[in-house]
Amino acid sequence: MAKYHHTPEPASAKVKYPIYRQLTVQETVCNTATKTRGIGINYVPVKLEPCVLLRGKWLRQAGFPAGQKVSVVVRQAEIVIKPKPEEPSPAVKN
C-alpha cells in the first residue's frame, strides 16, 4: 500500500524521435511608425505578419536549452532549425 502523501521518484523519460508537433501559423502586429494625416490627427497603420511561436520543455529535451544559438534554413514549404555549434573563444594574449 502506498504511503500517504508519498510522491514517487520521477521515471527517466525515454524520448523517442522523431516527435511530431502541430502548430498554427498566427498573425502578429509588426511595429510601424506613427503617420500624420493632418493637424492633430495621427494614426498607426496596422501591419500584420505571419508568426510561429515555439516554446516548451520539449525544446530543452530536443537539445535546445534557453540561450542556445540556432541556425534556420528556409526552403519552400519547409523550415529546418538546428543548434548552432559553439565557436571556440579566442585565446587571450598576454
Structure overview:
One of its GO terms (molecular function) is RNA binding. This is Type I addiction module toxin, SymE family. Pfam families: SymE_toxin. By secondary structure, this protein is mainly β. The protein has a domain of 58 residues. The chain is 5% helix and 31% strand. The protein has 1 helix and 6 strands. A two-stranded antiparallel sheet has the order 1-4. A two-stranded antiparallel sheet has the order 2-3. Strand 2 and strand 3 form a beta hairpin. The mean pLDDT is 81.
Topology at a glance:
Blueprint: E1 26-30, E2 35-38, E3 41-43, E4 47-51, H1 57-61, E5 70-75, E6 78-83
Antiparallel strand pairs: 1-4, 2-3, 5-6
Mass-distribution shape: extended
Instruction: Count all strands and give the number.
Output: 6
Cα gyration radius (Å): 23 Å
What does the largest sheet look like? 2 strands, antiparallel
Distance between termini? Answer: 67 Å
Strand content: 25-35%
Uncertain runs: none
Strand sequence of the main sheet, in spatial order? 1-4
Helix content: under 10%
Secondary-structure class: mainly beta
Could you give the order of the helices and strands? EEEEHEE
Q: What is the number of helical segments per DSSP (H or I, 4+ residues)?
A: 1
Average pLDDT score: 81
Compose a concise summary of this entry:
Residues 43-83 form the Toxin SymE-like domain. This protein is mainly beta and 94 residues long. The chain is built from one helix and six strands.
List keywords for this structure.
mainly beta; single chain; 6 strands; 31% strand; 94 residues
